[in-house]
Specification:
Blueprint lengths: L3 E7 L12 E2 L5 H11 L8 H12 L12 E4 L5 E8 L12 E8 L8 H15 L4 E7 L3 H9 L3 E3 L10
Parallel strand pairs: 5-6
Antiparallel strand pairs: 1-6, 1-7, 2-3, 3-4, 4-5
Helix pairs in contact: 1-2
């Protein structure tokens, strides 16, 4: 089991030119996003392609909260394949606090495209959209052992939020 932590960040930070062409994720992307998610996670969080598809579909169809397409950018390569994505929710309804904040629910990048800054750019783009839409804070839950993700979010001035469920919750 993986111990999860919740991070919270302000949407009120200066944005910078992203230099990244994206488009919003949609339900028609479920299969491609699931393939990317399954190939991206090495921590066993999704064990099969089918698990990834269930998780992605649940995000896109609103099972976990209102899907936030405008703040859910995907990056495609020259062949139209999705190589990075951020999937966001306007709120959570799955019982994981804080439920009243915009959430970066999933963020993943193809292994072949890591170390290009795509994740940071996707986060910045999502957060800029959230700010434009009136959100003041954004949350993300990550495995406590994911040092790379933790370092990225801390660089972007996220801080640990004390989730009452974090102490006992193992996902």
């Amino acid at each position: 089991m993986t111990r999860m932590i919740t991070l919270i960040g302000s949407t009120d930070r200066p944005s910078r030119e992203l230099g990244l062409t994206t488009r919003p994720a949609g339900l028609e992307d479920a299969e491609a996003l699931a393939r990317l998610m399954f190939s991206s996670y090495e921590d066993g969080r999704v064990n099969t392609q089918e698990d990834a598809l269930k998780l992605v579909t649940a995000v896109l169809d609103g099972t976990n909260g209102e899907f936030y397409a405008e703040a859910s950018p995907v990056v495609e390569d020259d062949h139209g394949r999705i190589v990075a994505a951020a999937l966001c929710l306007k709120n959570r309804v799955d019982g994981v606090p804080p439920e009243d904040k915009a959430t970066i629910f999933e963020l993943f990048t193809a292994a072949s495209r890591r170390r290009e800054g795509l994740a940071e750019k996707l986060i910045r783009q999502a957060v800029a959209q959230m700010k434009e839409d009136g959100f003041t804070e954004v949350t993300v839950r990550i495995p406590e052992a994911n040092a790379a993700a933790l370092a990225l979010y801390l660089t972007l001035e996220f801080r640990r939020w004390q989730n009452p469920n974090d102490e006992q919750e193992l996902v």
